[in-house]
């Protein structure tokens, strides 16, 4: 429908008195067209029908040092659609101080439920914003900035029980001292970041006071894109037209938990939502999910779900599938970050999703208005909206790479505090991986290896790993001792043949999951001459040089020894590309037994070898699935 | 006058100035329309910038106080640059 037709249809529904149909069409309009003009239209129409809808009314006062008027229609439109009828009062221009300190001010007469203090660095302290500061002045500058803030916040706390949301402060895009600002440790940026740290402490001193991380908000969108210098200089509006809605959305992220419009349960679909593909058609080995494109987008979505889970939000599955197919993927697929124990309820069947969702809500003792619904299929979403309009249906974009961001931005998952219970639920799963930069202090190679916190998992060939192993075997050129290529079918047959073993290695470290990065094939020769030959040994370049190769070789030696072999041997077959693997055997104490052209055979006496697994790698060995 | 441009302006101006599209005619200006105050003027400018993906100069914003003048500015800005 074109924009004019939708508007006419909405007018028609309102004139007929059908408030709920008008409301849902207004939602459709807003989702397809979240613009300034649509915001204004949506607000005016909701004002006509609000008495017929079940909305929470909420009084919001905004104290500001800049023009925010054009943001208000965005805020109110999105508020109405979230079930919040916002009454907004703006402070007079730059009168925010008087309003806070004067008990008889308009602010307190309004009796707000929440107050936003939106003041810019450049308004509160123009000198700090504009100029370079002398290095010794930083503590004084910070005090000069923080002291009045503390007084104002105390005044607000004395005069109203309203929640108080305080914008923190952005540093200028170009410090006055240029590059020098970052060298001294006491420049403009450092001062403002210190101010933000102290503001955070200040907010913790009082109940119901929260920081809005304005600095992060601007950074997220990019300083240049966020700001409009002309509008600032002419009408005191610092924010460019395309970002007005982003400030409104940031405010709304606070209003959701403050008004109780939160999702306590997220019901998710499986196919093309948690993984790429259809489990019932593509099978366990056909669906895509892992650290590589395109499966990575889906793994990223699962990571967000783990974060929500850690925040105390329940997860449930609602999927049209055969139960056994779906459960096999959930429990066995190596790319799954979520497992069955993360889900509080499941409905994997061929019934109507709204009926399933209703059942799940009942089972978990929740109202359907506390449930959010995630499904890649627009038809299912539409049907859910029609059947259960109170359910929060997330609009997933078509591009799976955008799924994770969409979920992270969704305001109904926000919380302003976590109860002990939430936290306890959360600590069970370490959802967030530490991604800190390497400490500069690593002095030795060993220390470097330790700092990586590597974990390796070696597994016998399984159905889930077969495609990736075949892929590695057929494309790895550099760190590949023999460069023998095998198809999936050949690998399968080989792994079933007596005396042949095929292994894979997956590696993760403090920076993330590298996934399945290596493969080896061992072949036990004649039972009376127990020699174990390494038929294939290869690793992806991304993990070479971090001693994973040593761990893998040690594992093969240990495996051979435990099967009664006395000798481990392997060929190095040179190619144009595999020079990185040339010295691998000699550097691990193996001796050359014979040579044939450029090829060389290396051997290791297992009873005398002192080859060991580096103790900085945590090694886990898992059995395969007996293909 | 560019008719399709006028239709788009009509819808946006009606949304922002809180009237029906039918009320947006060539005789409308900030003088004649009660809702066209300074806040709504800024909202109209921002809505147009967003709709047409452009940015007005401060002088243009000052000029855009009637429907014909808004149309003239839009028409000029949307012309492909002459060679």
Distance between the terminal alpha carbons of chain A, to the nearest Å?
54 Å
Using CB atoms under 8 Å apart, which protein chain pair has the greatest interface?
Answer: A-B, 23 and 19 residues
Mean pLDDT of chain A: 89
Find the structural class of chain B using helix and strand composition: mainly alpha
Oligomeric state, counting identical vs distinct chains: heterodimer
- Order of helices and strands of chain B, N to C? HHHH
Report low-confidence residues of chain B grouped into runs of 5 or more: none
Question: Sheet with the most strands of chain A?
Answer: 8 strands, mixed
Any idea how many domains of chain A? 4
Largest sheet, spatial ordering of strands of chain A:
16-17-15-14-13-12-11-18
The pLDDT mean of chain B sits at 92
**SS element count, helices of chain B:** 4
Alpha carbon gap, first and last residue of chain B: 23 Å
